[in-house]
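Thread: quick sanity check before group meeting

JM: Hey all, I'm pulling together slides for Thursday and realized we never actually wrote out the predicted structure for the chain we discussed last week. Dropping the sequence here so it's in one place. If anyone has concerns about the input, flag it before I start.
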Amino acid sequence: MLPLVEEFFSLQGEGFHTGKAAYFIRLGGCDVGCSWCDSRFSWNPDIHPLVPAEEIIRNVKNSGTDSVVVTGGEPLMWDLTYLCELLKEEKINTFLETSGAYPLSGSWDWICLSPKRNMPPSDDLCKVADELKVIIENEDDFVWAEKYRGMVSSQCMLFLQPEWSRFETVIPFIVSYVKQNPAWRISLQSHKYMHIP
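JM (edit): ok, ran it. Output follows.
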């Protein structure tokens, strides 16, 4: 049983897999508390229905997708082992979006780590991240990004993403930074430009 906020078939809007079709499972519950969070409605798990994993899997199968993104809130507040087992039985690719503030559970084909200052990720989760996506709200966040660049593996993809409400202010700094530090790439929230969920 998982607190299901919403589920929908769409396109990945951010990071390495931008533009890829995927089924999104948003779980309730988050105590990280980012001031700029665009899914605050997911924070309180008690206001979202507990849904059996089997029911979620039926909806995934009916969508015809080959990939699922589990997001939140902070999805690792919940044990995702059983959900991933069911997805793997159906040969569905599993993608996780997490702050890394809670221990890892489940079996994942791709882990996107987006570390937050309020509750930093564990060293163990940093080591297994496939993608590091750091939200840039101001110039101090580049220091934060570099800290975690040093904690992930050399194969981990590196992304800087402008905080949506400060896009016009921070994007020139990010462009300049990436030009000087080409290991990084820019991630844009393309789903917001496409007006899709």
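AS: nice. The two ends are 24 Å apart (CA to CA). The longest strand covers residues 2-11.
JM: adding both to the slides.
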